[in-house]
Amino acid sequence: MRLTTDTPIHELLRDGNVTAYYTSRGNYATTEEARYNGFNVCHYTGDSYEHTDICLKQLSLATGVSPEKIIFPHQVHSNDVSVITSVPWHKESLESTDAIVTNVRGIIIGVNTADCVPVAFSDSRAGIIGIAHAGWRGAANGITENTLTAMLDLGASPESIKVAMGPSICMSCFEVGTEVADRFDNTCVDRTSWDKPHVSIHRHITKSLINQGIPESNIAGFDNSLCTRCHPDTFFSARKLGVNSGRVFTFISMQ
Ligand SMILES: [Zn+2]
Protein backbone atom coordinates (compact mmCIF):
# COMPACT_ATOMS: atom_id res chain seq x y z
CA MET A 1 0.00 0.00 0.00
CA ARG A 2 1.41 3.39 -0.99
CA LEU A 3 0.17 6.42 0.90
CA THR A 4 -0.55 9.30 -1.44
CA THR A 5 -1.65 12.22 0.74
CA ASP A 6 -0.63 13.97 3.94
CA THR A 7 -3.26 12.07 5.96
CA PRO A 8 -1.72 11.44 9.41
CA ILE A 9 -1.07 7.71 8.91
CA HIS A 10 1.98 5.99 10.37
CA GLU A 11 3.40 2.53 9.80
CA LEU A 12 3.15 0.07 12.71
CA LEU A 13 4.07 -3.31 11.22
CA ARG A 14 5.37 -4.66 7.94
CA ASP A 15 5.41 -8.36 7.13
CA GLY A 16 5.85 -9.33 3.48
CA ASN A 17 2.80 -8.06 1.60
CA VAL A 18 1.04 -7.07 4.84
CA THR A 19 1.22 -3.61 6.40
CA ALA A 20 -0.41 -2.22 9.53
CA TYR A 21 -0.80 1.49 10.27
CA TYR A 22 -2.21 3.79 12.94
CA THR A 23 -3.60 7.30 12.63
CA SER A 24 -2.81 10.34 14.75
CA ARG A 25 -5.01 13.40 15.39
CA GLY A 26 -2.53 15.79 13.93
CA ASN A 27 -1.75 18.26 16.71
CA TYR A 28 -4.78 19.59 18.54
CA ALA A 29 -5.87 21.10 21.81
CA THR A 30 -6.76 18.73 24.63
CA THR A 31 -9.78 20.68 25.83
CA GLU A 32 -13.25 19.13 25.97
CA GLU A 33 -14.40 21.36 23.11
CA ALA A 34 -11.66 19.92 20.90
CA ARG A 35 -12.36 16.27 21.71
CA TYR A 36 -13.26 15.38 18.11
CA ASN A 37 -10.72 17.64 16.44
CA GLY A 38 -8.30 15.79 14.22
CA PHE A 39 -8.46 12.65 12.11
CA ASN A 40 -11.34 10.40 13.26
CA VAL A 41 -13.27 7.77 11.30
CA CYS A 42 -15.23 6.45 14.31
CA HIS A 43 -18.91 7.39 13.96
CA TYR A 44 -20.32 5.79 17.13
CA THR A 45 -18.61 7.75 19.90
CA GLY A 46 -20.42 11.04 19.35
CA ASP A 47 -18.65 12.68 16.42
CA SER A 48 -20.75 13.90 13.47
CA TYR A 49 -21.17 11.64 10.44
CA GLU A 50 -20.19 14.65 8.34
CA HIS A 51 -16.75 14.72 9.96
CA THR A 52 -16.15 10.96 10.12
CA ASP A 53 -17.23 10.58 6.46
CA ILE A 54 -14.71 13.23 5.40
CA CYS A 55 -11.99 11.38 7.31
CA LEU A 56 -13.04 8.03 5.83
CA LYS A 57 -12.84 9.48 2.31
CA GLN A 58 -9.43 10.93 3.17
CA LEU A 59 -8.29 7.49 4.37
CA SER A 60 -9.64 5.92 1.19
CA LEU A 61 -7.75 8.43 -0.97
CA ALA A 62 -4.54 7.91 0.99
CA THR A 63 -4.66 4.11 0.82
CA GLY A 64 -6.34 3.54 -2.52
CA VAL A 65 -8.92 1.29 -0.83
CA SER A 66 -12.57 2.21 -1.42
CA PRO A 67 -14.61 3.21 1.67
CA GLU A 68 -16.84 0.11 1.48
CA LYS A 69 -13.73 -2.04 1.79
CA ILE A 70 -12.57 -0.25 4.95
CA ILE A 71 -14.09 -2.47 7.62
CA PHE A 72 -14.30 -1.92 11.36
CA PRO A 73 -16.61 -3.33 14.01
CA HIS A 74 -18.96 -1.53 16.40
CA GLN A 75 -16.88 -2.32 19.46
CA VAL A 76 -18.37 -3.12 22.86
CA HIS A 77 -15.43 -4.43 24.96
CA SER A 78 -16.43 -8.03 24.20
CA ASN A 79 -14.17 -11.00 23.43
CA ASP A 80 -15.97 -11.82 20.17
CA VAL A 81 -14.19 -12.03 16.81
CA SER A 82 -15.70 -11.63 13.32
CA VAL A 83 -14.11 -13.74 10.59
CA ILE A 84 -14.40 -12.39 7.03
CA THR A 85 -13.59 -14.87 4.27
CA SER A 86 -15.33 -13.14 1.38
CA VAL A 87 -16.61 -9.73 0.36
CA PRO A 88 -19.16 -8.30 0.51
CA TRP A 89 -19.64 -9.39 4.10
CA HIS A 90 -22.65 -9.30 6.41
CA LYS A 91 -22.48 -5.93 8.13
CA GLU A 92 -24.56 -7.27 11.05
CA SER A 93 -21.70 -9.63 11.86
CA LEU A 94 -19.63 -6.59 12.88
CA GLU A 95 -22.12 -5.37 15.48
CA SER A 96 -20.89 -5.95 19.03
CA THR A 97 -17.56 -7.53 18.15
CA ASP A 98 -14.07 -6.37 19.00
CA ALA A 99 -11.81 -8.09 16.52
CA ILE A 100 -11.70 -9.06 12.85
CA VAL A 101 -9.74 -11.84 11.17
CA THR A 102 -9.57 -12.21 7.39
CA ASN A 103 -7.84 -13.96 4.51
CA VAL A 104 -9.22 -11.47 1.97
CA ARG A 105 -6.68 -9.34 0.12
CA GLY A 106 -7.16 -5.68 -0.78
CA ILE A 107 -9.44 -4.76 2.11
CA ILE A 108 -8.66 -2.82 5.28
CA ILE A 109 -9.67 -4.15 8.68
CA GLY A 110 -9.28 -1.88 11.68
CA VAL A 111 -10.30 -0.94 15.22
CA ASN A 112 -10.97 2.43 16.86
CA THR A 113 -9.37 3.08 20.23
CA ALA A 114 -8.63 5.86 22.71
CA ASP A 115 -6.38 4.38 25.44
CA CYS A 116 -7.38 0.73 24.83
CA VAL A 117 -4.80 -1.38 23.01
CA PRO A 118 -5.12 -2.03 19.26
CA VAL A 119 -3.36 -5.28 18.36
CA ALA A 120 -2.36 -6.10 14.77
CA PHE A 121 -1.64 -9.70 13.73
CA SER A 122 -0.04 -10.88 10.49
CA ASP A 123 0.80 -14.26 9.01
CA SER A 124 1.85 -13.20 5.51
CA ARG A 125 2.98 -16.74 4.64
CA ALA A 126 -0.49 -18.16 5.27
CA GLY A 127 -2.20 -14.99 4.00
CA ILE A 128 -4.16 -14.34 7.18
CA ILE A 129 -4.38 -11.09 9.16
CA GLY A 130 -6.20 -9.91 12.27
CA ILE A 131 -6.91 -6.81 14.31
CA ALA A 132 -8.22 -6.63 17.88
CA HIS A 133 -9.40 -3.98 20.34
CA ALA A 134 -8.17 -4.87 23.81
CA GLY A 135 -9.21 -2.71 26.71
CA TRP A 136 -8.77 -4.17 30.15
CA ARG A 137 -12.11 -6.01 29.97
CA GLY A 138 -11.46 -7.50 26.56
CA ALA A 139 -7.88 -8.35 27.48
CA ALA A 140 -8.91 -10.02 30.73
CA ASN A 141 -11.66 -11.93 28.91
CA GLY A 142 -9.37 -13.20 26.13
CA ILE A 143 -10.01 -11.05 23.05
CA THR A 144 -6.43 -11.42 21.80
CA GLU A 145 -6.44 -15.18 22.54
CA ASN A 146 -9.70 -15.52 20.59
CA THR A 147 -8.30 -13.50 17.68
CA LEU A 148 -5.24 -15.73 17.51
CA THR A 149 -7.40 -18.87 17.73
CA ALA A 150 -9.55 -17.61 14.83
CA MET A 151 -6.38 -17.09 12.77
CA LEU A 152 -5.11 -20.58 13.59
CA ASP A 153 -8.52 -22.05 12.66
CA LEU A 154 -8.15 -20.40 9.22
CA GLY A 155 -4.72 -21.97 8.77
CA ALA A 156 -2.20 -19.54 10.28
CA SER A 157 0.87 -20.88 12.14
CA PRO A 158 1.88 -19.42 15.53
CA GLU A 159 5.58 -19.40 14.63
CA SER A 160 5.03 -17.19 11.57
CA ILE A 161 2.58 -14.71 13.13
CA LYS A 162 3.93 -11.20 13.77
CA VAL A 163 2.23 -8.94 16.31
CA ALA A 164 2.40 -5.19 17.05
CA MET A 165 0.46 -2.97 19.44
CA GLY A 166 -0.60 0.53 18.42
CA PRO A 167 -1.17 3.79 20.34
CA SER A 168 -2.62 3.09 23.79
CA ILE A 169 -2.25 3.93 27.46
CA CYS A 170 1.13 3.17 29.07
CA MET A 171 1.47 1.45 32.44
CA SER A 172 2.49 4.69 34.20
CA CYS A 173 -0.75 6.32 33.09
CA PHE A 174 -3.01 3.31 33.62
CA GLU A 175 -4.14 3.62 37.23
CA VAL A 176 -6.91 1.17 38.13
CA GLY A 177 -8.90 0.02 41.16
CA THR A 178 -7.98 -3.17 42.95
CA GLU A 179 -11.02 -4.93 41.42
CA VAL A 180 -9.48 -4.39 37.97
CA ALA A 181 -5.91 -5.14 39.08
CA ASP A 182 -7.09 -8.43 40.58
CA ARG A 183 -8.16 -9.62 37.11
CA PHE A 184 -4.52 -9.68 36.02
CA ASP A 185 -1.46 -11.78 36.73
CA ASN A 186 0.82 -10.19 39.34
CA THR A 187 3.60 -9.88 36.75
CA CYS A 188 1.42 -7.35 34.89
CA VAL A 189 0.49 -5.26 37.95
CA ASP A 190 2.53 -2.74 39.94
CA ARG A 191 0.96 -2.18 43.38
CA THR A 192 3.85 -0.34 45.01
CA SER A 193 5.12 2.49 42.79
CA TRP A 194 1.93 4.58 42.98
CA ASP A 195 -0.90 5.05 45.48
CA LYS A 196 -3.20 2.85 43.40
CA PRO A 197 -2.36 -0.22 41.29
CA HIS A 198 -1.21 0.19 37.71
CA VAL A 199 -1.65 -2.48 35.02
CA SER A 200 0.36 -3.16 31.87
CA ILE A 201 -2.18 -4.43 29.35
CA HIS A 202 0.68 -4.74 26.85
CA ARG A 203 2.55 -7.17 29.09
CA HIS A 204 -0.63 -9.17 29.69
CA ILE A 205 -1.24 -9.46 25.93
CA THR A 206 2.38 -10.36 25.22
CA LYS A 207 2.39 -13.10 27.87
CA SER A 208 -0.88 -14.63 26.71
CA LEU A 209 0.24 -14.73 23.06
CA ILE A 210 3.53 -16.36 24.05
CA ASN A 211 1.50 -18.93 26.01
CA GLN A 212 -0.37 -19.69 22.79
CA GLY A 213 2.86 -20.36 20.91
CA ILE A 214 3.87 -17.08 19.29
CA PRO A 215 7.66 -16.61 19.61
CA GLU A 216 8.49 -13.63 21.82
CA SER A 217 10.75 -12.25 19.10
CA ASN A 218 7.70 -11.99 16.81
CA ILE A 219 5.93 -9.58 19.17
CA ALA A 220 7.08 -5.97 18.90
CA GLY A 221 7.51 -4.35 22.31
CA PHE A 222 5.12 -1.49 23.04
CA ASP A 223 6.72 1.87 22.33
CA ASN A 224 5.90 4.24 25.23
CA SER A 225 6.14 7.20 22.86
CA LEU A 226 2.79 5.91 21.54
CA CYS A 227 1.06 6.42 24.91
CA THR A 228 -2.29 8.08 24.22
CA ARG A 229 -2.64 9.56 27.72
CA CYS A 230 0.91 10.98 27.71
CA HIS A 231 0.26 12.57 24.29
CA PRO A 232 -3.44 13.52 24.03
CA ASP A 233 -2.57 16.33 21.61
CA THR A 234 -1.34 13.68 19.15
CA PHE A 235 -3.64 10.74 19.99
CA PHE A 236 -7.22 10.63 21.23
CA SER A 237 -7.31 9.63 24.91
CA ALA A 238 -10.59 8.80 26.63
CA ARG A 239 -9.02 9.39 30.04
CA LYS A 240 -8.02 12.91 29.00
CA LEU A 241 -10.82 13.91 26.60
CA GLY A 242 -13.71 11.76 27.87
CA VAL A 243 -15.27 8.58 26.48
CA ASN A 244 -17.19 10.72 23.99
CA SER A 245 -14.19 11.73 21.89
CA GLY A 246 -12.42 10.78 18.68
CA ARG A 247 -10.50 7.55 18.21
CA VAL A 248 -7.15 6.39 16.87
CA PHE A 249 -7.73 4.08 13.89
CA THR A 250 -5.31 1.17 13.72
CA PHE A 251 -5.65 -0.98 10.62
CA ILE A 252 -4.03 -3.73 8.63
CA SER A 253 -4.21 -4.79 5.01
CA MET A 254 -2.80 -7.52 2.78
CA GLN A 255 -2.04 -7.08 -0.91
ZN1 LIG B 1 1.49 7.37 29.46
Automatic annotation (TrEMBL):
Keywords: Hydrolase, Metal-binding, Transferase, Zinc. It catalyses: adenosine + phosphate = alpha-D-ribose 1-phosphate + adenine; inosine + phosphate = alpha-D-ribose 1-phosphate + hypoxanthine; adenosine + H2O + H(+) = inosine + NH4(+); S-methyl-5'-thioadenosine + phosphate = 5-(methylsulfanyl)-alpha-D-ribose 1-phosphate + adenine. It comes from the Bacteria. GO terms for molecular function: copper ion binding; hydrolase activity; S-methyl-5-thioadenosine phosphorylase activity. SUPFAM superfamilies: CNF1/YfiH-like putative cysteine hydrolases. CDD domains: YfiH. Belongs to the purine nucleoside phosphorylase YfiH/LACC1 family. This is Purine nucleoside phosphorylase. It comes from Duncaniella freteri. The gene is pgeF.
